[in-house]
Design brief:
With 327 residues, this protein is of the alpha/beta class. Helices cover 36% and strands 18% of the residues. Strands 10-9-11-1-12 form a 5-stranded parallel beta sheet, with helices on both faces. Strands 3-2-4-5 form a 4-stranded parallel beta sheet, sandwiched between helices. It has a 3-stranded parallel beta sheet with strand order 7-6-8, with helices on both faces. Helix 2 links the parallel strand 2 and strand 3. The longest helix is centred in the N-terminal third of the chain and has 17 residues. It starts with 14 loop residues before the first strand and ends in a 19-residue tail after the last strand.
């Protein structure tokens, strides 16, 4: 539970603040961040990271201060003996092969759920299937997944695209999804695909990120009692943006994505007679939530509560090269 008594300022008012749980870091994000931290501790800087390790400026800046060097392309790395970490979102085999040709030492921080989908795409391709990838085609995860079989993967973003997509053999079709989409996000698209292709092979439910669904379910409950909802997350974070959409779809017209307390500057004065709901995307560190609570206290909030919809206990293993010795 949060300790909400430490903010110190005594202000009278009736603003109620309710914080949803689960929120913030998922197991894949925690693992990716710790992989960078362990690599820096074991090998020393610089440690190169291709793409933002997770979509959060605070996290990236913190790791950069410790010696991580973030690049978008491997060509930016000039050290032939560089140690390179791939972000939680995954990369295509072309990127991995290029890193190997350059002689880089590779550390894989890709979320295991993403790796699982990559493996499925390869298996379907080898079996001669066309793979429909449900997701946002410009998202870094989808780009990496499609790269496993670029000639066999077709990206579908909407119901409209699902209804018009063409495949060589409707009876040899499978679909996978971007892991950071929930069951709710994909339901209508999947239903459209299943109507068009009755023989389509379905992925395991385990491909869907449990954390995305859990956070959306918590926001739905939060929407039942909130007049205004703040989702704390990066504008680049797909799952954070989706939490705002979920809140609005549940009737909370005043739902906002803010990166930190600076986002409150555009809100103006908040009434004391409201309930403020708070949640955060899977890449948002808890310290930003604490800062937001302190700011709301200054703005007149006197009642703080946390409700827990579901406890999360998932942990993903670390690469063997980064396991600390217990001897």
């Amino acid at each position: 539970m949060l300790d909400l008594r430490c903010h110190g300022v005594i202000i009278y008012g009736d603003m109620r603040v309710v914080v949803a749980k689960p929120r913030g870091f998922c197991a894949g994000v925690e693992r990716a961040i710790e992989i960078v931290e362990r690599a820096l501790e074991m090998y020393g800087p610089p440690i190169y990271v291709r793409h933002a390790i997770v979509h959060n400026t605070r996290v990236v800046d913190s790791l950069r201060e410790k010696g991580a060097v973030f690049v978008e392309e491997l060509d930016e790395i000039k050290d032939p003996a560089a140690r390179v970490i791939f972000s939680a979102h995954g990369v295509s085999p072309v990127v991995i092969e290029k890193a190997r040709r350059r002689g880089f030492q590779i550390v894989d921080a890709v979320c295991p759920l993403v790796t699982k989908v990559h493996n499925e795409v390869r298996d379907y391709c080898e079996a001669g299937y066309t793979i429909i990838l449900v997701g946002h085609r410009n998202h870094v995860e989808v780009i990496g997944t499609k790269g496993e079989a670029p000639d066999s993967v077709v990206v579908v973003e909407s119901v409209k695209e699902a209804l018009s997509v063409n495949v060589p053999d409707p009876e040899k079709t499978a679909y996978v999804t971007q892991t950071t989409l929930s069951v709710d996000d994909t339901r209508e698209i999947v239903e459209a695909l299943e109507r068009r292709f009755p023989e389509i092979i379905k992925p395991s439910k385990l491909d869907i990120c449990y954390a995305t669904q859990n956070r959306q379910d918590a926001v739905k409950k939060l929407a039942e009692i909130s007049d205004i909802i703040f989702i704390v997350g990066s504008p680049e974070s797909s799952n954070s943006n989706r939490l705002v959409e979920v809140a609005k779809s549940c009737g909370v017209r005043n739902a906002y994505l803010i990166e930190d307390i600076g986002g409150l500057g555009n809100m103006g004065a908040l009434s004391n007679d409201i309930t403020v709901g708070i949640s955060s995307g899977a890449s948002t560190p808890e310290v930003i939530i604490e800062e937001l609570l302190a700011k709301l206290k200054e703005m007149g909030a006197t009642s703080f509560e946390e409700f827990s919809l579901k406890e999360e206990s998932t942990k993903f293993p670390f690469p063997h090269s980064l396991e600390f010795s217990t001897s």
